[in-house]
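Could you join me in thinking about how sequence relates to backbone shape in a protein? We need material for that, and I hope you will provide a protein of your own picking. Label the sequence line and the structure token line clearly, so we can match residues to local backbone shapes. Would you write everything just below, so we can both look at the same thing?
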Amino acid sequence: MKTKSGKLRCFLRPAPFWRRMAVMAVGVLIQGFGLSVLRSIDLGLDPCSCLTQGVSNLTHLSFGTCQVLCHLATFLVVLKFDLSRVGYGTVGNMVFLGYISDFFTWLWRTALPEGFFEKTAVRYGLLLPALAVFLLGAAAYMCSGLGSSPYDAVPFIIAERAKKLSFRVVRISWDVSFMVLGLALGVMPGLVTLAVAFFCGPVVAWVQKKLETTLFAQG
């Protein structure tokens, strides 16, 4: 699909492109790092990961593989209705985030004593730091301006076409539906699930402002 100028509407390269690529890559990396800890302490996951973890538990495939499979279904919607939301960040999040999380999860199991994450003090002590890392990583990737994951893109597409529904209503409904599906597959929502719902938006807005006035500023 092309714009009036004949250029593809996907994989755009806004300036400063390489800085944005670096921010996106680092964002996905630290988001995956944070996600691995959140999975290990078992105090809930973000709505998208709830479903991914449920599919992983059911199929016994790796979390990363299940994330790719889950994203593919929503990716078809994005391809059909709004190619402009597809970019390098789409690939980074959809393909690599889950596998990065798998790598760090494997690393913790290999390097740390057995049962380390089962201790109550460890679980709750790591909750806020891991959540902060996860949210900052997610915000960095989202604010890079290089496309979004299919999971994040679909609510925008729905809201643009369902004129009577606000984006807030669509997004909440979208998140809840994934939590319900994850719950049906045996993954319980928790403190992390609620925290992501309440704090992701403000963190993204704060990071966006910082990036636009520093790394992404021209001149």
